[in-house]
Each structure stands twice: as structure tokens, then as C-alpha cells.
Design brief:
- By secondary structure, this protein is an alpha+beta fold.
- The protein folds into 3 domains: 114 residues; 60 residues; 148 residues, Histidine kinase-like ATPase, C-terminal domain (Heat Shock Protein 90).
- 60% of the residues lie in helices and 13% in strands.
- It is built from 7 helices and 7 strands.
- The strands form 2 sheets. The chain has a 5-stranded mixed beta sheet.
- The longest helix is centred in the N-terminal third of the chain and has 75 residues.
- It is elongated and about 120 Å long.
Length: 347
């Protein structure tokens, strides 16, 4: 059984063939009609020359010193013309068959190339829906189980009911955060255009991001070392601030207590390089290629900590920087440090 992509590819190929063959047959008909008119003209000319031999001799001997007389057939030869017509028809049919075969192969190939971006987008949407459903299932199951257990407990008192509601509220808050992240991930970048990008101070954006995560850093006694130059960037300031909040928040989560986080910048030609480094547990080599995937959380070192989250932050960060025509990369030494590097176009 063909999948939807293969069916669409065959339908698109059929449309390609239909258009090509209509054009090819139309040209073939045009060529045949032209050839047929030429055959009829030759027959008429041949008949005219036979019926007017003196005119023919005069036409063929314009000079008096020409003594040779070219002999002509006594009657027209329509059978020869009919054979010529038949050969033209056979040749045109053969050409159209060749065009059909070549067009089928070329159309199938081009249809596949045309549908690749669409297939990629559909697969991405399917993965998004599957991953989101998987992440939603766990808190919903937990919430339902707690409520069902509470309802079955006939001896539940006010304190137990309050604890149950508090637990349910935590799950609801988590679901709300997940839905907000999913919505942001789906919509982020749509509002970022050249028109609404403005000149902003990188230093001011980073300061605003640091201020937003200061309370989280204080809880773990983490120091944020800042070495940011006051460069100018063209950006939507709120989105870039969110980008650095995600990177700083991520660095705080995976750092040990009483550690430090470094954020610094430098200019490279027309790009501003900003790096955020934490000296925590690091990321395993096999996890690095997937670190920006949605819902991905490393199975080894970084997932061993009781860190809340759904693995969406870095995906959002990547989408933000790419919508600003920038790039983001990561390097890590397991057990020592991790550095996220952002490249933002300078003004």
C-alpha cells in the first residue's frame, strides 16, 4: 500500500505527463498538418507541370543554350505521398512514445523533488503532535489518578483534600507552562520581520535577561560573570532577551551550587558572538547533535538531575536566533563545562 506521499507523487507525475503530452500531441498535429499541406502542394504542382509541359520546359530552360529537356512523370504519384504521410504519422507516434517514457521518468523524479519540502513539513508536524501528546499524557494521567483516588477515599479529611488540590494545582501549572511553550514554539518567528527589527543595545538586552534569572541564581549561590560589550544589533529586543533568558536559565539549572556562569561577547566581522558557559556536569558527546530537538533531554548526565522542564527551551532559543538570521551552537566537556554560542548579525 502506498503512503500519502507516494500517492501525491504519482498524482503530480500524472499531471506533469498530462500537460506535457497535450503540448506534445498539439505540436505533432501542427507538424502533421504542415507536412500534409506540403504534400498536397507538391501533388498540385506535379499535376500542373504534367498538364502544362511547354510551361515546364520554359521554366526549366531559361537560357537558349540549354538543350536538355528534363522528363517528367506522365501522371501524379499520390501513392508515394500517402506512404510519406504514413511514415510521418509513424515517426510522430514514435516520437510521442519516447517523450511519454522520458517524461514519465523525469516527471516522477521532479514530483519527488517538489514534494520533499512538503513531506518534511508534514513529518515535522506529525512529530510535533506525537511528542506533544506524549508529554501531555504523563501529567494528565497523574492528575486523573490523584483525583480518582481522592474520590474513592470516603474517609478523606480537609487536610488531605487540601494536599490533593495543591498537588493537582502543581500539575495544572506544569500543563499551562507546557502549553505556553508549545504555543510559543509554534508561533515564534512569525512576528519577526525586517520591518519590526530595530537597532538595540546588546548590553541592555543581556542586562535585562540577567535580571530576570537573578532569583534562580541566588537560590543556588551562582555568580554570573558578565563581559558584554555595548554592541548594536538589529533585532526584536523581547525575543532576543528571551533567548538569553533560556540560555542563562539552562546554565543555572545544570550548574552545581556556588558555581559561576560566564556570559561574554566579541565582534567578528559583521556578526556578534555571545557565549554562555556553565561549569556543571556537561553534555555527553552522543547527546550534542540532538540538544536542540524538541522535547529532547539527554538520557545520561543531564537527565540525572531533578530539573523540571520539558526539553523545549533550547528548541525555542534556536528558532528565535534563526528568525534573526543568526546561528547557535554548543560545545561541551562532560563533567567540566558547557558553552552555548550565539551569532547575531551586527548593525
Amino acid at each position: 500500500m502506498f503512503d500519502h506521499f507516494e500517492k501525491a507523487r504519482l498524482k503530480l507525475t500524472a499531471w506533469y505527463l498530462l500537460i506535457i503530452m497535450i503540448i506534445s500531441i498539439a505540436f505533432s498535429a501542427f507538424i502533421f498538418l504542415g507536412a500534409n499541406r506540403e504534400f498536397d502542394r507538391i501533388l498540385r504542382l506535379q499535376k500542373f507541370r504534367i498538364e502544362n509541359p511547354q510551361l515546364q520546359i520554359h521554366m526549366l530552360q531559361p537560357f537558349p543554350w540549354q538543350d536538355d529537356i528534363i522528363s517528367l512523370p506522365e501522371k501524379p504519384e499520390p501513392d508515394v505521398m500517402q506512404e510519406a504521410r504514413a511514415r510521418v504519422i509513424i515517426d510522430l507516434i514514435g516520437i510521442n512514445i519516447v517523450i511519454l517514457i522520458i517524461s514519465s521518468l523525469a516527471g516522477y523524479f521532479l514530483a519527488g523533488r517538489t514534494l520533499v519540502p512538503i513531506k518534511k513539513m508534514v513529518d515535522e508536524q506529525n512529530r510535533f503532535i506525537t511528542d506533544a501528546s506524549h508529554e501531555l499524557r504523563t501529567p494528565l494521567t497523574s492528575l486523573r489518578t490523584e483525583i480518582e483516588v481522592g474520590l474513592r477515599d470516603k474517609s478523606i479529611d480537609v487536610m488531605d483534600a487540601k494536599k490533593l488540590l495543591e498537588s493537582n494545582l502543581e500539575e495544572v501549572v506544569g500543563l499551562q507552562a507546557l502549553s505556553d511553550n508549545l504555543l510559543e514554539l509554534a508561533q515564534n518567528g512569525k512576528e519577526i520581520t525586517i520591518e519590526n527589527m530595530k537597532e538595540n543595545s546588546l548590553l541592555e538586552i543581556v542586562n535585562a535577561a540577567i535580571k530576570k534569572v537573578e532569583s534562580l541564581a541566588l537560590k543556588k549561590q551562582i555568580t554570573i560573570e558578565k563581559k558584554i560589550k555595548d554592541e548594536k544589533i538589529s533585532a526584536v529586543s523581547d525575543r532576543v532577551k528571551e533567548l538569553f533568558v533560556i540560555l542563562l536559565d539552562n546554565a543555572i539549572k545544570y550548574s552545581k551550587e556556588n558555581e559561576k556562569i560566564s556570559i561574554q561577547s566579541k565582534k567578528q566581522q559583521n556578526m556578534i558572538e555571545v557565549s554562555v558557559t556553565d561549569f556543571g556536569m556537561g553534555i555527553a558527546k552522543e547527546d550534542l547533535p540532538h540538544i536542540f530537538d524538541r522535547f529532547y533531554r539527554a538520557n545520561k548526565s543531564r537527565s540525572k538531575t531533578d530539573v523540571p522542564g520539558y526539553g523545549l527551551g533550547l528548541s525555542i532559543a534556536k528558532k528565535i536566533i534563526e528568525s534573526h538570521n543568526g546561528q547557535i551552537s554548543v560545545t561541551s566537556i562532560p563533567g567540566k563545562k558547557t558553552t552555548f554560542t550565539v551569532f547575531i548579525p551586527a548593525v
